[in-house]
């Protein structure tokens, strides 16, 4: 992980939501952002890292970094 501070334009706490609902919630939140803005997602589902990475690849968005060192599973996504 880099020492760059995390900047998010919006926060989204998905708790225990699983794949289908997780991806839908992220998609809806990202629609509200402008290109280049960032969304910080908190997700406890064990499959979230893979689901978010795959969603970003398919949609042209960027998974900037996974903050796995933190107590919660947080992921910074940048709108492409």
Please describe the structure with a list of short key phrases separated by commas or semicolons.
80 residues; alpha+beta; globular
Q: Outline of this structure?
A:
The protein is an alpha+beta fold. Helix content is 31%, strand content 28%.
Polypeptide structure, described:
It comes from Dictyobacter halimunensis. InterPro entries: TusA-like, TusA-like_sf. This is UPF0033 domain-containing protein. By secondary structure, this protein is of the alpha+beta class. The protein has one domain: TusA-like domain (Translation Initiation Factor IF3), CATH 3.30.110. Helix content is about 30%, strand content about 30%. The protein contains 2 helices and 4 strands. It has helices spanning about 20-30, 50-60, and strands at about 10-15, 40-45, 60-65, 75-80. Strands 1-2-4-3 form a 4-stranded mixed β-sheet, with helices on one face. Strand 3 (about 60-65) and strand 4 form a beta hairpin. The protein is globular and about 25 Å long. The relative contact order is 0.25.
């Amino acid at each position: 992980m880099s020492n760059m501070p995390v900047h998010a334009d919006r926060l989204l706490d998905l708790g225990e939501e699983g794949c289908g609902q997780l991806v839908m919630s992220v998609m809806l939140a990202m629609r509200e952002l402008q290109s280049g803005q960032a969304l910080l997602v908190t997700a406890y589902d064990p499959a979230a890292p893979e689901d978010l990475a795959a969603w970003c690849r398919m949609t042209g968005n960027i998974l900037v970094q996974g903050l796995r060192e933190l107590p919660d599973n947080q992921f910074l996504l940048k709108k492409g």
